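Try it yourself: sequence plus nickel (II) ion, in.
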Amino acid sequence: MGIFDTHAHYWRSDFGEELDALLKELPSKNVEKVVAVGCDLPSSEEEIELAARYDHVYAAVGFHPENAGKVPENWESELIRLLSRDKVVALGEIGLDYHYEDGPPKEVQKDVFIKQLEIAQSHNLPVIIHSRDAMGDTLDILKKHKPRGVMHCFSGSAESALEIVKLGMYIGFTGVLTFKNAKKAQAACAAVPTERLLLETDCPYMAPVPHRGERSDSSMIAFTAAKMAEIKGVSTEEMLEITNQNGKKLFNC
Ligand code: NI
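Structure, out:
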């Protein structure tokens, strides 16, 4: 079964002139589906346009917490307008990021995050959650709002992973899982039931070993899948099949 990359950023600013050739070739590299994820209005529109052009590409739209401090005044109605476009399968990526001291204030991030959770709920769409150095507040909000969705690029503890699973959510792992120093992510992956696991690149970032540090793309998931399969004690082929089915179930595509 083919790769389902549940979280990729295919922007021309990162891939330049190579973007179209790369996307066109993905099916021949065993990539069956990709959810291309926006981080503000222009990048979300970009992903919607790619979804319109490529059968195997779907789009997620939303405001990343790093952009929560500069949302336009009419952002909620603009976001809702994007949700009605073809092949928009989720709201994302949304969440909390307390990593940078000069990032948007926590209260501003929480407000934009919660409003997007409410929009997703009222449109019956899943959410793609980003949480960095903010697990406590993220979990509090998720417990209250109980969205359908995935915690993406998971690098937290096995304990937090299980709390998220208990809420009915999925856990997405990137190439980080293949890093030598990623013992925590590997332990979390071992703890999550296979029916809640998703594979993702978060490309162009987070390339798996042996491509660590390079610009990544969806085909590199094969390496992450092999590591995940080793952790779960199944074959890579089975791991791709399980995560593919999980992705289709969550994103209904
Ligand atoms: Ni991302």
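One thing you can check immediately is this: The mean pLDDT is 97.
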